[in-house]
Predict the structure.
Amino acid sequence: MSLGSAEVAKIAHLARLAIGAADIASYARNLSSILELVAQMNAVDTTGVEPLAHPLEMAQRLRPDEVSESDRRERFQAIAPSVEAGLYLVPQVIE
Amino acid sequence: MEWETVIGLEIHAQLSTNSKIFSGAATAYGAAPNTQACAIDLGLPGVLPVLNREAVRMAVMFGLAIEAGVARRSVFARKNYFYPDLPKGYQISQYELPVVQRGQISIDLEDGDSKVIGITRAHLEEDAGKSLHEDFHGLSGIDLNRAGTPLLEIVSEPDLRSSREAVAYMKKLHTLVRYLGICDGNMQEGSFRCDANVSVRPKGQAAFGTRAEIKNLNSFRFVERAIEFEVQRQIELLEDGGTVVQETRLYDPDKGETRAMRSKEEANDYRYFPDPDLLPLVLDEAFIESARTALPELPDARKQRFIDQYGLGAYDAGVLTASRELADYYEALVEALGGEPKLAANWVMGDLAAALNKAGLEIAQSPVGADRLAGLLERIQDRTISGKIAKEVFEALWNGEGEADAIIARRGLRQITDTTAIEQAIDAVLRANPEQLAQYRAGKDKLLGFFVGQVMKLTQGKANPQQLNDLLAKKLKA
């Protein structure tokens, strides 16, 4: 499977990556070769093989439902670009 | 052309845990912005989510209550999209292997029938934060306190055929999650909200029409209105030769309409994949059995028991079991009263419900506890006071004037059951109204009510109504 430039542009947009028009062709080539590798793996007969959700043969540990975190807003907000009234300020996005 | 409406609902129920689904930050509502958002909730580098056992237990309880399969092994996935109130750039959710599999719930229809609605799945996920768009000099303010709050997303089959059915289904689930104690059901605070997938098709057609998804409906009334508007919009569009576009729409309660929200290209391109930070969730039989043991009596079972045990009609039993608190109150009342389930039902659904409604209170906040109300109903039962006087006593109870007996004694409300006293009052009334008496005897039967009223007035409403009727009838005949 090979990707066209429109698909590369779409993937970049979904990932919010700015890529130069001049680079699109090389991205398309590199991504396509990754997909070819996946296609090779897809060709293997996996009948009867359980899907692998995680490489570790372990189950998720559960924690008790206890509040263990205290308020550290001051420290977190010290490294934020912009805050006001306890809120993080970001460029406006309205739908 | 006759159209058929097809609706499926996705309901988000916030689970009532103390801490978040993947972190130890508190989930209390109404805290100052970002004071309950820890490093994990903020998506800072190097943090690792660890799953909250209680959130899992609650999801399992829900699964058992809707007769669903509970997955012995389920997987968390990343749902990728960008929005400022989602700090990681993905939401941890479940995709291919949700913890609760197919189940069902029965809803009551208006014609008295019931209908089984399929529930496709229910999965655990984390909530996002909140964006505040006003008043930050063209910027948005982000509060991440809600980020990471556990949600159970409950997805129905497209089995609902009208806005009313959709509301009945949503109310049924609302009752169920509160019975289970897994969600407080507070819709104003967003603890229980819903997205509706709505489509129409010509009646008799097997294939579904193209659907629109209406987001974030947080009241039963909005769900009903939004669906009705959307159905009408789609029918008009199709009848004018247009086509419905698959899209996400937003309901505007002020205008009472839905409008397009996201473009089609971007919708549903979430690129899910298993979250490498989380191992598969594996549940053993002991865990599932302990959740089963914790199940309370469920609403349908309790309703049936009210019908069988208390001899109530289906409607009354349904009203009284609509919330666990109300059903508990009713049962405490019947127990304190030592019986009289119908008298108790009439008062709980009548005067008490009306007073609570007027004051905007929930049953749990009732100023008149079940014991106090029982004290009043006992006096109706033993005929110390009449039903009419009881309303006055109830008002005094409501206003915190003490026990029923004390109110009755203090206000001298004890019913007159002494025959001689009632007869004296009747005689006085008949003497004072010779004209009406003559008219009555001449055949004007309607005046009976007038005499009853006059005697009641004279006795300040305290004459025993049954005795008064009997004695008055005798006197008038004489």
User: Anything to note?
Assistant: Chain B touches chain A through 56 residues (CB under 8 Å).
